[in-house]
Structure formats: structure tokens, C-alpha cells
Design brief:
There is one protein chain. The protein is an all-alpha fold and 195 residues long. It contains nine helices and no strands. The protein has a single domain, classed as Rhomboid-like fold (Up-down Bundle), CATH 1.20.1540.10. The protein starts with a helix and ends in a 7-residue tail after the last helix.
Length: 195
């Protein structure tokens, strides 16, 4: 028993992924404690004055905020499944860059095209990870069939949901996140990356 317990230990296998998840959980806890004020102030994105410094923070930080615990858990499960694999393959710095670019692109897009809507959540990052992960194993000069199938199924689902639901903002965010993940997946796959 003693020999077994001395070999069993926890490994910090994906620090960027774990940090992202930790910040999302902290943001949700803060949102609950402030009765939604922190989400409105920092962890959501909507059109506001360019003179307001929080406008720029919200453009990045909206991926940390979530509407409720179920919203958070749904996104974090995907992040925890896909993030470690992507972080091992491309390194923490590149994964952090993917998260930041996805947040910025979806945040700016939302402010420009949906000025009256408050957007929050990591679903854009989730879809970036989904499309990026479908490209991780490929032959030089070849597009993986898994990527084509995931892209077709994913795009089809998002387009149908966008056509038949009133909330086209989240579908747009998913599509943009998927596009960012696809671009990074193809760019980062051109050469081996180190952490």
C-alpha cells in the first residue's frame, strides 16, 4: 500500500488549459457573489463607448464569463477534453494565443454586428478547439477526412440552428471560433511546435 501511494501523484499536464478553466470557475463564482454585476461589468461583451477602458477588457474577458453553472460546465468539459491534447501538440503559448485570438475576434464581431446583445461564454473557444483538434494528425499536403466531416457536420448544425432559432449570435460565435481554430490548426501543423 505504501509503495503504491508513493508512486501515485497528480501531474500538471496542461497548465494553460487548467488556468483557463480555473479563471472561468473564479469568474462564475464572482458572478454569483456579485449577483451578476461582474458579468455585466467585465465578463461579457456588448457595444459600449470606445473611451471606456472596460470595453477593451470585455473584448477579451467575455470568454471567462458564463450565464450559469450549467453553461460553464458544458463548456469546461469540452475544454478539459480537448485542451490538454492541443496543448501537448502545439505548446501552451500557442494554445493561449488561440484562446486570445478567438476571444478578440468573437468579441469585436459581436460588438459590430450585434450591438444590443450581451455575449459571454467560452463556446467560441470550444469550437476553435473542436475544429483545431480534428486537424492535429495529418499527412503533409493532405486535408484529413475527419476535419472535413467535423466541419460539415458542425457547420450544418450551426447554420440550421441559426436559421431556426432567434439567437443567431451564439451560432455566429461558434462559426467564428471554428474558423479561428481551423486557421490555427492548419498554420500550426506546418511544422512541429515546442512549448
Amino acid at each position: 500500500m505504501n509503495r503504491f501511494s508513493s508512486r501515485l501523484r497528480l501531474s500538471l499536464n496542461a497548465p494553460v488549459t487548467l488556468a483557463f478553466v480555473g479563471v472561468c470557475f473564479a469568474a462564475q463564482l464572482l458572478n454569483v457573489l456579485t449577483m451578476g454585476a461582474s458579468n455585466r461589468l467585465v465578463f461579457s461583451v456588448y457595444r459600449s463607448s470606445l473611451a471606456d477602458p472596460l470595453t477593451y477588457m470585455r473584448s477579451l474577458f467575455h470568454v471567462f464569463g458564463h450565464a450559469d453553472w450549467n453553461h460553464l460546465m458544458g463548456n469546461m468539459i469540452y475544454i478539459l477534453i480537448l485542451g490538454p491534447m492541443l496543448e501537448e501538440k502545439y505548446g501552451g503559448k500557442n494554445l493561449a494565443l488561440v484562446i486570445a485570438v478567438t476571444a478578440l475576434v468573437t468579441g469585436v464581431f459581436s460588438q459590430l454586428l450585434f450591438p444590443r446583445v450581451m455575449l459571454l461564454g467560452a463556446s467560441g473557444v470550444v469550437f476553435a478547439f473542436i475544429l483545431m483538434s480534428s486537424i492535429t494528425v495529418r499527412e503533409d499536403g493532405a486535408i484529413p477526412l475527419t476535419f472535413v466531416l467535423v466541419a460539415l457536420l458542425y457547420l450544418g448544425q450551426q447554420v440550421l440552428q441559426g436559421l431556426f432559432t432567434r439567437d443567431s449570435v451564439s451560432q455566429s460565435t461558434h462559426l467564428i471560433g471554428g474558423a479561428v481554430g481551423s486557421v490555427f490548426g492548419f498554420l500550426l501543423n506546418k511544422q512541429p511546435w515546442k512549448r
